[in-house]
Predict the structure.
Amino acid sequence: MKIAEIYSHLNGLEYLQIHLPELWEEIQEVIEFVDAEACKTKKSKEKKKVGKLLYSPIEMNKKFKELLENKNWKESRTQYYVTANAKMARETLWQEPAKQKEIIEASGSEALYTYNQTDLVKERVAVEVQFGKYFSVAYDLFVKHMAFYVGDKIDLGIEILPMKVLASEMSSGVPYYEGELYNIIRQGRNTPAVPLIIIGISQ
């Protein structure tokens, strides 16, 4: 596969190229190594594509994960506590988990444990390969990468998406680079408040 487009949010690409150029090389190598045709294994049952052989998002995700794990990219979690009390939520948002729990419970509210998980992290850089449903990208960008950044687990998030031309050869509902680029840009220059690299790939 190949990189067709790149969008650098809050100088994400520049940060990676200057501070961790070897990781940028690894990501490019992995993308180039993925054989798109080998992932064309899903027979469509959709009305307009019945019987057509499509690229399998599951197979593509699996291949990317396998190749990155071979280069020592690993799973990571960021843990925190939430509450139904809006005042406490605002007060504890930036605290360490233990402190969050302490403050919430001291106020008489219930502290609920939760976490965000990302499968691929290395040297404070997180990668999400997103060939799932379109809503998953917003969660990655505005919740997951943000939570890891605020929790001081990462300095940069990377989202790998298919270009529209590739997504059109998959099941319906798959996100694509052009659409997600628009969603990010319309939020303004500083939102989400985490450096990101959005990569659009094609076969």
User: Anything to note?
Assistant: DSSP finds eight helices and eight strands in the chain.
